[in-house]
Amino acid sequence: METATIPTAFELTIQLTDEQFFQLCQNNRDLRFERGASGDLTIMPPTGSETGNRNIDLSYQLQSWSRQNNLGLAFDSSTGFKLPNGANRSPDAAWVSHQRWEVLTTEEKEKFAPLSPDFVVELRSKTDSLSKLQAKMQEYIENGTKLAWLLDRQNQRVEIYRPNQVVEIIPSPQFLSGENILPGFVLDLKNIL
Question: In angstroms, rounded to a whole number, what is the distance separating the alpha carbons of residues 68 and 139?
């Protein structure tokens, strides 16, 4: 008996309306879906336990800061956003200012918010392609994200993306600053990186 090997992140091209894509995600909550601007669909399995633990630490720190300063809303890895280029992305953690969030309609807030978050973080797991994550980070910046962090555990470094700037690479940082996008936010990387 032959077995088929399916890659960790399974990709296919399928044309779905926004409503069909939303329903696909709602009907398959055990999976994570992303859709590229050209309609390519990526199906991602749930994360492994170690990555999930690091993700919850990341999300907890961002949420704690967000609640204390009340400048916007933090989102976890299960949240989808519809970027201006048409892609649907789900970063590991994200933050949107109140100013940008409050202009959305109730329906837009209940589905995939039609915006690129002000801030995003992607945490690279062992099975993630570095080049695909780097392309995703550039896509966020090109669609309006002001600050994006790629936490690369395999290479023990962080890549920081900002609009109109060269990517900054920091080897083995212990902390990251939210700069003027997330004033006062400092991410402790001790249990994440």
Answer: 30
Q: Cα–Cα distance between 43 and 122 in angstroms, integer?
A: 16
pLDDT at 93 over 50: yes
Q: Which residue has the tokens 């402790």?
A: 188
- Classify strands 72-75 and 93-97 as parallel, antiparallel or unpaired: antiparallel
Tokens of 132: 């695909």
107: three-class secondary structure by DSSP: helix
CA distance 15 to 106: 26
Run of H or E residues at 66: helix 49-69
pLDDT digits (tens, 9 = 90+) for 133-183: 999 999 999 999 999 999 999 999 999 999 999 999 999 999 999 999 999
Identify whether the C-beta of residue 174 lies closer than 8 Å to the C-beta of residue 167. Answer: no
Q: What is the pLDDT of residues 46-66, one digit of tens each?
A: 777 888 888 899 999 999 999
Give the E-state strand segments of 8-162 in sequence order.
10-13, 32-35, 40-44, 72-75, 81-82, 88-89, 93-97, 119-124, 147-152, 157-161
What distance in Å separates the CA atoms of residue 117 and residue 65, rounded to the nearest whole number? 16
